[in-house]
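Section 3.1: Structural characterization of target chains.
Under the original work plan, the team committed to producing a structural model for every single-chain target entering the pipeline before any wet-lab resources were allocated. The record below documents one such target. The sequence was received from the expression subgroup and is listed exactly as submitted; it comprises 131 residues.
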Amino acid sequence: MSLIPWSPFLDTFDSLEKGFTNFVPAIDVYEEKDNVIVEATLAGIKPEEVEINVHDDVLTLEGKRQTSSEIDEKNYYRKEVRSGSFHRSVILPASVQADKAKAKFENGMLKVLLPKETESKPKNIKINIDK
């Protein structure tokens, strides 16, 4: 068995991470012509355990990854797969129509499709002058 050198930075950051949320899902945010798309990796999470909210053009994902009791009994050499609750918010790059958003969950990937707000076009108004 080899020895692992002690590092004060690793211990400090590891304990900080444990004090906050247990894990943060990776996300991608991009635009298509008429939509903003947000994709998140949520492997091992049930779709019914995820809550999606859009408010003031900020998308928030919240959820929980459950652990089974048999995992706690294992003698780990390394444990990197996190469990517990998560909370992730991202500012969207454009105004969206939150009431028309759609979400799809497939193979551990969540895809949220958010239609962009239609931009209001300037309207020219002719002024009638009475003579």
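Strands lie at 27-31, 35-41, 50-55, 58-65, 84-91, 102-106, 109-115.
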